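Figure 3 (text version): structure tokens given as input.
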């Protein structure tokens, strides 16, 4: 009997020890799990705090380093935009207590050169890159660089052919409404004809014209070409195209060369109107006409009606001298100011339009600077 009792007592002691061991294990596991959860929560809180701190630091920057990729420095209108950008980087930066450093690179109208410049800029730790494309169909490479380096991008003046490149929160385009300049060119012609029927030099009731286009696959150039003639027609003018579109790449010398060839082929007396997508080409066209004894500003009978776009200083001089009939003002100063204002916002991680009076266009990814018609007063 004593042996049985002893055995029972031993069994109870073993059971108690196992239970205690199991309880200790469960308590340890529970404690460990709680500690892991607490650590994870602490990590999440730290990450959130770091993100908030980074955003605050970005918003509170006192110096912004911005890269500017320009299609070519020699473009007259583009030069006015660059001058304005330099001016407003100083003025707006000073007003905001921020030093705005603009590093500008000349692509010299070569996309491969611009891509190489972009490779350097995007890896140099810039706060933002401003891009004036050499080739409007080549924006994807630069967009890919922007995403890879997590750098916001502002395209201006020459709109990427593929809008998908700029339809994201880290990109925006600043330009003009592509059709507006063409519409105004057509309106200028219609207004001039209503005041001076002698523009129709041969009196056949039609206006024989030439078209000088800036660039293939450029939305701005295509729209100016189309809407200038369409608007003139809608205003009641009968238009007759004398030749294929002359693509002179926005360039004065190229336009002069091509216009000289057209004069040789057609005769200056057969040409009544020349539409040019920009003033630089219009100046080249007039140089060719001058060499043929036309548009010297002293003989209405030996004047071809030439209409440009941009309202460059030279163009205004030519209008006043009677050599150029009219132009459409593309406001380089307003463009430069808008670029700097939005670039400062983007470089600080703010909304593109924060604190500005600009309105996003219906496309949701751009703002558009308005044009104005300019003729001799």
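Below: residues designed for each position.
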């Amino acid at each position: 009997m004593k042996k049985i009792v002893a055995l029972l007592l031993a069994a109870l002691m073993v059971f108690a020890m196992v239970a205690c061991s199991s309880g200790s294990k469960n308590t340890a596991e529970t404690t460990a799990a709680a500690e892991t959860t607490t650590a994870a929560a602490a990590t999440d809180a730290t990450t959130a705090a770091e993100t908030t701190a980074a955003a605050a630091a970005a918003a509170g920057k006192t110096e912004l380093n911005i890269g500017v990729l320009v299609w070519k420095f020699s473009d007259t209108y583009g030069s006015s935009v660059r001058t304005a950008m330099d001016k407003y980087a100083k003025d707006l930066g000073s007003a905001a207590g921020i030093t705005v450093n603009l590093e500008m690179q000349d692509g010299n109208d070569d996309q491969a050169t611009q891509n190489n410049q972009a490779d350097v800029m995007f890896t140099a730790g810039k706060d933002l890159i401003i891009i004036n494309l050499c080739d409007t169909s080549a924006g994807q490479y630069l967009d890919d660089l922007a995403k890879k380096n997590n750098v916001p991008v502002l395209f201006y003046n020459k709109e990427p052919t593929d809008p998908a490149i700029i339809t994201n929160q880290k990109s925006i385009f600043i330009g003009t409404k592509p059709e507006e300049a063409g519409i105004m060119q057509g309106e200028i012609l219609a207004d001039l004809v209503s005041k001076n029927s002698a523009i129709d030099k041969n009196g056949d009731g039609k206006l024989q014209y030439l078209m000088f286009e800036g660039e293939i696959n450029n939305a701005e150039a295509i729209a100016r070409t189309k809407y200038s003639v369409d608007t003139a027609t809608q205003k009641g003018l009968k238009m007759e195209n004398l030749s294929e579109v002359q693509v002179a790449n926005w360039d004065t010398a190229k336009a002069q060369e091509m216009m000289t060839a057209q004069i040789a082929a057609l005769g200056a007396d057969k040409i009544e109107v020349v539409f040019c997508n920009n003033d630089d080409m219009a100046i080249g066209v007039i140089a060719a006409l001058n060499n043929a004894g036309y548009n010297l500003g002293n003989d209405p009978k030996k004047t071809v009606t030439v209409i440009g776009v941009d309202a460059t200083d030279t163009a205004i001089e030519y209008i006043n001298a009677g050599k150029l009939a009219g132009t459409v003002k593309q406001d380089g100063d307003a463009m430069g100011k808008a670029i700097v204002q939005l670039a400062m916002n983007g470089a600080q991680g703010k909304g593109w339009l924060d604190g500005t009076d600009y309105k996003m266009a219906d496309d949701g990814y751009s703002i558009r600077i308005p044009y104005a018609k300019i003729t001799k007063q």
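The chain has three domains: 1-59, 64-175+332-370, 179-330.
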